[in-house]
Amino acid sequence: MDCPTPEVLAERIRSTRLQPGQARLWWLGQHGFVVRMAAATVYIDAYLTDHPRRRVPPLLKPAQVTDADLIIGTHDHSDHIDRPVWPTLAQASPQATFVVPAPVRDGLVADLGLPPARVVGLDDGMVLERGGVRLHALPAAHELLERDPVTGQHRYLGVVLEAGGKGIYHSGDSCLYEGLHDRLRRFPLAAALLPINGRDAERLSRHCIGNMTFQEAVDLAGAVRPGLTVCTHFDMFLGNMEDPRKFADYMRAKYPGLPAMIPEYGVAIDVTLS
Question: Average of pLDDT values for 91-116?
Answer without folding.
Answer: 98
